[in-house]
Write a structure and sequence with these properties.
Helices cover 39% and strands 16% of the residues. With 75 residues, the protein is an alpha+beta fold. It has one domain. It has a 3-stranded antiparallel sheet. Strand 1 and strand 2 form a beta hairpin.
Amino acid sequence: MTRRLVSAAIIAVFAAAPAFAATEYFVAQKVSDKTCSVATTKPDGKTVMMVGKTSYKTEAAATAAMKAAMECKKK
């Protein structure tokens, strides 16, 4: 009984671990058409460039930074 309980607890911890992982948001700009977006993966620097030098803890903060960035203003 104890062995089953411990096994179930270990499985539950491993299943829930990705939910507790820290998520970073980046402001990214496509090189081809200069459109900006918020991304959860760091831009590669070839086809998608990072706008600014920082990552953001929330999507709302990244969206606000994207709206304020000069590179993302519509021309």
